[in-house]
Amino acid sequence: EISKRLNGSKQLRNMWQIPYPSQKERRFGKHPSQKPLELISRLVLIATQKDDIILDCFSGSGTTGVVAQSFGRRWIMIEKNPEYNEIARKRLKNVRVPYPEQLIESELELV
Questions:
Q1: What is the pLDDT, as a whole number, of residue 75?
Q2: Would you call 56 helix, strand, or coil by DSSP?
């Protein structure tokens, strides 16, 4: 059901057209391979339920944690680079929680 809501009532295809992170989104990340919030949001909503735990072993600037926290999921993030850990901490402080799942058609936005 969620996968249909993500794709305008159609079954999800095996290829998604998701743009690179926007300039506004990248200003929070500053990681060379930052993933778009929309991509991680789709994966989290399709594969998990509220209060599930999401593990990201290479968390970088924390996009997975931002999305997980936004949708009421718990998270464990691992990153060896202290600079990226600090960026992730700052990003997580700006998350609006919980982000209602009925708004999945729109992008997550950090304030």
A1: 94
A2: strand
Query: What residue has token string 């339920």?
Result: 49
CA–CA separation, 59 and 70 (whole Å): 16
Give domain 2-103's CATH architecture.
3-Layer(aba) Sandwich (3.40)
Per the prediction, the chain carries an average pLDDT of 77
Can you tell me the distance from the alpha carbon of 9 to that of 102, in angstroms, rounded to the nearest whole number?
Answer: 14
Amino acid at 73: R
Distance of alpha carbon 92 from alpha carbon 102, whole angstroms: 21
CA distance 41 to 60: 16
- DSSP per-residue letters across 5-22: HHTTTSPPPS----PPPP
In DSSP notation, 20-53 reads PPPHHHHHHH--TTPPPHHHHHHHHHHH--TT-E
Instruction: Decide if pLDDT at 102 tops 70.
Output: no
The answer to whether 23 and 49 have CB atoms below 8 angstroms apart is no
CA 64 to chain centre: 5
